[in-house]
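Notes from the 1:1 (GR / supervisor)

We went over the backlog. Supervisor wanted to see one worked example end to end before approving the batch request, so GR pasted a single chain during the call. The sequence is below; no edits were made to it. Supervisor asked that the structure be written out right there so they could see what the output format looks like.
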Amino acid sequence: MNQIYVLHENSAWVAPLREAFEETDLPYREWFLDQGALTFDRAPPQGVFYNRMSASSHTRGHRFAPELTHGALNWLESHGRRVINGSRALYLEVSKLAQYAALQKAGIKTPRTVAAVGRDHVLAAARDFGPGPYILKPNRGGKGLGVQLFQSVAAIDAYLNSPQAIEEAPIDGIWLIQEYIQSAAPYISRCEFVGGRFLYAVRVDTRDGFELCPADACATKDAFCPADAPKTNRFTVLPDFSHTILDRYARFLAANDVEIAGIEFIIDRSGEILTYDVNTNTNYNAEAESDAAVPLTGMRAIARFLGGELAKVPAATAIAAAE
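Structure output shown during the call:
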């Protein structure tokens, strides 16, 4: 029997999706790709393959999970399997530079950003921005980890000379120096898409920092995840959100073979939208969904979409090389 295969490295984030599969009686199997082997001389099974690999996998001790997943996705795609969020989506997930290039190509404005490798180049880039404040972030992050606000070049210099900077250094070595967007209100917005279609928007309070993972079980060793604090939930679902940016986002996703994603933007004081993050491994906040009484939760929407795609797949004809 054909199945839905979920490629991931974080069981906690998949738990709500498991529940949605079981509620709808959909057959599924998980491929936990923190390590393993790929047998390229055998064909993959038939089915639908949903990639949920995260850019933050290294923070959970799964340093090479994205690289292994990239190989798996190439294997699946070379055999013509139905892949949701394939190799192009993973490329965007693990590189904000790739995201910004693709967004700009689609005519979507992003904050001014400079990439730098090496302390001296980071400081030179910050000086070129002029007076602060500045945002410093890793090119490959996830959950908002490592995103910091600095008021001066001297403050960045002090940070880069600290033991903390060594611990938080980008896994790919690339720092991003970014203009700090002065917004009219202390929040960002996130637009959720499933099957390439807009589901709902979320408003996220940023007064307590930039680690904005909405998952209900966001287990991080040293970082605060706002989803762990339901009494002060920072997430508000906006089910009736409407804006012309949604059409541009939908075209951007289609052009990059991304079918499930959360796209984050901020509105500056002049009212202009700047898009700064694309999450192809999107999560949802159950409390916020419940408060808004959304007709279809994020994970149930994904399950419904994957189930519809599974129904289109021909009968199974091959056995998984991984079995």
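Supervisor's comment: Residues 202 and 237 are 4 Å apart (CA to CA).
Batch request approved.
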